[in-house]
Design a protein that fits this description.
Number of strands: 10
Largest sheet: 4 strands, mixed
Helix content: 55-70%
Mean pLDDT: 86
Number of domains: 3
């Protein structure tokens, strides 16, 4: 393991341009997974040379037969002929003489045997022992299972001579029916009209009226007994004389299946011939089913001709498919590199995209090649929705285009699958955009179903496809596809979230519930911090909306950004109420350690409660590498500049890596600082916030967050209405302000207090 670890470490240290060799190799491997596996999944026996011209379309070129070839039957024609031939294949049964003889023995000898035992039964004293012994003897001689209790009923019946004659009549009928044959296969399972019985090597058809399976035979004999006996007596007699009979027509499965295989093999796959130089279709002629079948047959003939001649067409066809797939994937790679650089640099996210695309292609291959189902059953919206929900709508859009092009080109689905994939994929992305709950699956089903309906109507009507055929395709293929793909998406969404540590808006909504155990605990153990987090959440949500960031993520991240303070809540100013500040009894270094520890504690607590990484990032990033200036200055006063290391009084970072964490950093600082203001006016509040934001910007804390100057302006504007609401009872508006002689001194005090409050957050 150490050698392997060292090997990967070396790959990291080798640079290819600005990237490590390990990073480059991973990206190449992910690309090769698709480039190699997709052509293998969608191998075809024919070049896609002519069937790009679909039924109903206009031929864009003249096609003449280059040689003689046979016209293949369509799948529908072949299936109809197979069904017709199959109906003529009989079920073969072998007549069993041994079973017939055993049945005859029972039907002819059992009644006399019991009749002879009757006198002894009537005279013997120990009837119980006699019946038990007789039951054992019947089992040995006739292989009949009958209880002593039922033997008592039989002897009561046999006491009347007329009953014996009646039983004899019924048994004679049973023997005649049995000799004709009892099938060992249920009649309901026989789906073809003919049955042939092989008796002594001679095949004879079995007439429908003579066909008896075990249940039908038993029912007929039971009805004969009911003509003479009560229901209870009939049950005993039928059980004794009929239930022990065995079928004597034994199904020859192997011979029957062999006959079916031979008949299917003898069916011709062709129906006509096209001769060399014969015109198949001229340019600008509408393609009908007959012309299309000729074009399809020509493609198959070309492939066979190429294999027979040992030419390079097969290899060149495979090479062309590989080149086409490379070009399509290059589009995706260029898009990611140019417009989604963070995703391109993140191999974990690239793996997620590859997994989703491969899942889509595997399902498509299973449906169209393994199961040979309609292309309309391929759930192309599955990948569109997963990419849109797990990453973003832009990736979902490009992923949809890639899937459509690959299925239309490499898989050979043509224009139809491209059209359906694109339209339904775009609608699917819209249906799950800013998804807020898992019930949105029903919205997705409705939207995708309507998109499919519109597309099938538009695509089919101009081809003069019958309405009945349009709704057959929609009802049996597209509607189930819409339902299946939507449900599967939402079923497996959680697996992708956990496997790739991705937090969707659905999970964010679940985490925003204030009854979450972690938030409940925070509200009880650190109520001041809890209230502070709620206000920060409102500020961050408002600011995120203003700049187009993820407002839900910003709000939920705010709720959890200070959960580490639960470990020592009394050391943070918002939880001290009117109590003395505990930091007054500590040296500055210890105070700084306590403040930085709440970041580490918060991360550990979040991991313990299964909080996703996307939310955990808010805990260290909302502080960045800020200097705890109050305690740093205090240390300078106490120990002197030479004895104090500035890094000991900075948060460990990292700096905010996203717009949302940067917004929470600013919201946290603003909320903590403005808490110290008394009777702030709107102008004073704005100036105060601008100063705080400017301070964070100049310190470089926002450098890695992608926030622009315009964003910062919008953030400040978004903070103000929220703060007006929080401080409404204390804000002095211009016409209410009073001139105070101590205004300058008071402002200085407020700024000092703000710094103190901010550092303690």
């Amino acid at each position: 393991m150490e050698a392997l670890s060292d090997f990967f470490e070396k790959l990291k240290n080798i640079k290819v341009g600005k990237r490590s060799l390990q990073d480059v190799l991973i990206k190449i491997l992910l690309a090769l997974i698709i480039l190699i596996s997709v052509p293998l999944m969608f191998t075809t026996q024919r070049p896609l040379k002519y069937t790009d011209m679909k039924v109903g379309s206009i031929a864009n070129r003249k096609v003449v037969a280059p040689f003689n070839f046979f016209i293949l039957k369509t799948d529908k024609e072949l299936k109809a002929e197979q069904d017709s031939v199959l109906k003529k294949i009989p079920y073969f049964f072998v007549y069993s003489d041994s079973a017939t003889n055993r049945n005859k023995k029972l039907l002819r000898n059992l009644l006399p045997f019991l009749s002879n035992a009757l006198p002894q039964y009537e005279t013997i004293e120990d009837k119980e022992e006699f019946l038990k012994n007789l039951s054992d003897e019947l089992r040995l001689v006739f292989d009949v299972e009958v209880s002593p209790t039922n033997l008592t009923v039989i002897f009561d019946i046999l006491k009347d001579k007329e009953n014996i004659d009646s039983i004899r009549k019924v048994l004679e009928i049973a023997e005649k029916r049995m000799v004709k044959g009892i099938l060992n296969l249920d009649l309901a399972s026989i789906t073809r009209p003919k049955i042939v019985v092989v008796k002594n090597g001679i095949e004879e058809p079995l007439n429908p009226e003579d066909r008896l399976d075990v249940s039908k035979f038993q029912k007929e004999i039971e009805n004969e007994f009911l003509k003479y006996f009560t229901v209870n007596q009939t049950l005993v007699l039928e059980y004794l004389f009929v239930r022990s009979l065995e079928p004597n027509l034994i199904y020859d499965r192997a011979f029957t299946e062999k006959s079916v295989e031979e008949a299917m093999a003898n069916i011709s796959r062709t129906k006509d011939m096209v001769y060399e130089n014969e015109l198949i279709v001229d340019k600008n002629i509408r393609i009908d089913q007959q012309i299309y079948q000729k074009l399809y047959s020509l493609e198959m003939a070309l492939a066979e001709h190429s294999r027979r001649e040992g030419r390079w067409e097969g290899f060149l066809s495979s090479l062309g498919r590989f080149m086409l797939l490379t070009a399509i994937l290059a589009i995706f790679a260029l898009y990611l590199y140019s417009f989604r650089r963070k995703i391109f640099n993140n191999n974990k996210m690239l793996l997620l995209i590859v997994v989703i695309l491969m899942m889509e292609f595997i399902i498509a291959a299973l449906i169209t090649h393994t199961l040979t189902w309609s292309i309309y059953l391929i759930p192309t919206t599955l990948g569109s929705m997963l990419l849109a929900i797990l990453i973003d709508a832009g990736i979902g859009f490009v992923g949809t285009v890639i899937v459509a092009l690959i299925l239309g080109g490499i898989q050979g689905g043509g224009y139809d699958i491209v059209l359906f994939s694109m339209v339904s994929g775009m609608v699917a992305i819209y249906s799950v955009y800013r998804i807020r709950n898992r019930n949105q699956v029903f919205k997705a089903i409705i939207f995708i179903s309507l998109a499919y309906l519109w597309t099938i109507l538009a695509n089919s009507l101009f081809r003069y496809t019958p309405i009945s055929e349009i709704f057959r395709i929609y009802g049996f293929n597209l509607l189930p596809n819409a339902i299946f793909s939507s449900f599967i998406t939402f079923m497996i969404l959680g697996l992708f979230e956990k496997a790739f540590d991705i937090t969707t808006d659905v999970t964010l909504l679940e985490l925003s519930d204030l009854n979450h155990p972690l938030l409940k605990k925070l509200s009880f153990e650190a109520p001041g911090t809890f209230h502070h987090s709620m206000v920060v959440g409102n500020l961050a949500e408002s600011a995120a909306k203003a700049i187009g960031a993820n407002s839900l993520l910003a709000r939920v991240g705010s709720y959890y950004h200070d959960i580490g303070k639960m470990e020592k809540p009394q050391y943070f100013v918002e939880n001290q109420m009117n109590a003395d500040n505990r930091h007054n009894q500590l040296n500055p270094n210890m105070s700084a350690l306590i403040l930085t520890s709440h970041v580490k504690n918060g991360i550990e607590l979040a991991k313990k409660h299964g909080i996703p990484k996307r939310i955990r990032d808010f805990i260290p990033e909302h502080h960045g590498t800020n200097l705890m200036s109050y305690f740093y200055n205090k240390a300078l006063e106490m120990y002197g500049e030479d004895e104090v290391n500035e890094s000991d009084y900075r948060y460990p970072g990292p700096k905010p890596q996203s717009k949302e964490t940067a917004i929470v950093m600013l919201a946290d600082a603003v909320e903590a600082a403005t808490r110290t203001l008394s009777n702030p006016s709107p102008n004073k509040l704005r100036a105060f916030i601008e100063e705080l934001v400017d301070k964070r910007f100049k310190e470089g804390e926002l450098d890695e967050s992608d926030l622009t100057f315009r964003d910062l302006k919008k953030i400040i504007d978004a903070f103000l209405p929220v703060l007006y609401g929080v401080f409404q009872h204390r804000i002095e508006y211009p016409d209410q302000e009073k001139k105070k002689t101590t205004k300058v001194g008071k402002n200085r005090q407020e700024k000092a207090a703000a710094k103190n409050g901010s550092s303690n957050s």
